[in-house]
Amino acid sequence: MTTDDLILKTLHCTPLTEELRDAEIETLAKVIVLKRYKAGEVIIEPGRNPLGESLMILAEGEAEISATVDGEPMKLQLSKPGDVASIIGFVGGRDVVVNARVEVLKDGAVLLLERAKFETLLDSNPALVYYVMRGLVRYMHGVARRKNAETEEFSNYFYKMGGRY
């Protein structure tokens, strides 16, 4: 599969583009870069984020995000094409401190959408930018809901609540 084909295939399966038409996805693909990584590589770690303000979209392979949120360790798996990472750096800019680590678990590739390149589409394709940002919010809401449900399930198990344990 060519690089362009992989980019388009991944964009078609990410929730970020579910409201976009094919022509808009092709426009978005023009500002995206594909980068390949080997298992064991650390893409981002506290104090070192070579991606800067780029959004990561998993194309192939697997990666794991490890972070500490409010003093609690948290892990998030990127396991299917279209999964997204590095959201805070993308929307927050250089002033946001990222205390996460992204490690590649299985050889693969990610799409990188640099915020500055994405913002060049604001004048020519404002609807595209709007719909991608809506997709990003929905994606984050889904992650938060899943993590909340996992926490509640663990709490029910730990404290033997809910009558199922």
Structure summary:
The protein is an alpha+beta fold. It is 41% helix and 30% strand.
Model description:
The protein is of the alpha+beta class and 165 residues long. It has a single domain (3-158), classed as Jelly Rolls (Sandwich). 41% of the residues lie in helices and 30% in strands. It has six helices and six strands. It has helices at 3-13, 22-29, 87-92, 115-119, 121-124, 126-158; strands spanning 32-37, 42-44, 54-69, 72-78, 84-85, 100-114. Strands 1, 2, 3, 4, 5 and 6 form a six-stranded antiparallel beta sheet that branches. A hairpin with a 2-residue loop joins strand 3 and strand 4 (72-78). The chain is globular. 22% of the residues are buried. The mean pLDDT is 87.
Task: Record the SSE blueprint.
Elements: H1 3-13, H2 22-29, E1 32-37, E2 42-44, E3 54-69, E4 72-78, E5 84-85, H3 87-92, E6 100-114, H4 115-119, H5 121-124, H6 126-158
Antiparallel strand pairs: 1-6, 2-6, 3-4, 3-5, 3-6
Helix pairs in contact: 1-2
Uncertain runs with pLDDT below 50, 5 residues or more? none
For this structure, the CATH topology is: Jelly Rolls
Largest sheet: 6 strands, antiparallel
**Overall 3D geometry?**
globular
CATH superfamily: Jelly Rolls
* Rg over alpha carbons: 17 Å
What is the ordering of alpha helices and beta strands?
A: HHEEEEEHEHHH
Report the structural category: alpha+beta
Instruction: Supply the number of helical segments.
Output: 6
How many discrete structural domains? 1
Beta-strand fraction estimate: 25-35%
Q: What percent of residues adopt helix (DSSP H or I)?
A: 40-55%
The total strand number stands at 6
CATH class category: Mainly Beta
* CA distance, first residue to last residue: 48 Å
